[in-house]
Amino acid sequence: MPLPFDLSMGAGAFLAAALFAAAFIRGYSGFGFSAIFIILAALVTNPLPLIPVVFACEIAMTAFQARGIRPHIDWRRSLALLAGAAVATLPAVAVMARLGPDQARLVISALILALSLLLLSGWRLARPIGTAGHVAVGMASGMANSAGVGGLPAAAFMTAQPIPPAVFRATMIVFLTGIDLMALPVMSAHGLTGPDTLWGVILAFPILGAGVWVGSRGFALAAPDLFRRYVVTLLAALAALNIVKAAL
Fold it and tell me: Model pTM?
């Protein structure tokens, strides 16, 4: 049976390995799944048709993690972020849907590189931001989510505040699930979903389960802050590689 999106067996095997790695990172740190997978996918194929698959996978992963994160969710932050994202999702997806493969790679990579460098800079807010600030951050995330990297703006601002790792992880998971649920119908309306999307999700599901399970077990045993730094460093390196590739 042919693979979805006309992928070769080699590209399919590479994406399966990338999916497991990204799911492990999501299980461990609470964010990074979409960005890691999409930036790796951009090395071998046009990432744009894969974004709805990634969003559906992200929603599915929340089911694996829901029981463990429930006590740690900061609902005030989550709802404010989601309110902002709701404003930005529709126009941002409309713009992204009109980009060609090379443009999509370049936009996605540039977004990831800029946000990764912000995360790596050690930038800190002088004081925690309030509800209005979180709504503004949610709008930035909603725009970035059209490229599949909506978690990075929120992660940048949340890591710049004194938030316990378990609360950070749980709140990011809820927020990412919410913005993906917003984006999927809009992407479908712009013709970015189809039978290959469903087939891709079906193939991805067992890989997701294994990756999230391993990553979630690791969260209790290691230092999440240090691991998040490694993840963001990898994102920045891959994004820079894709920008160079697109420019050649």
Answer: 0.80
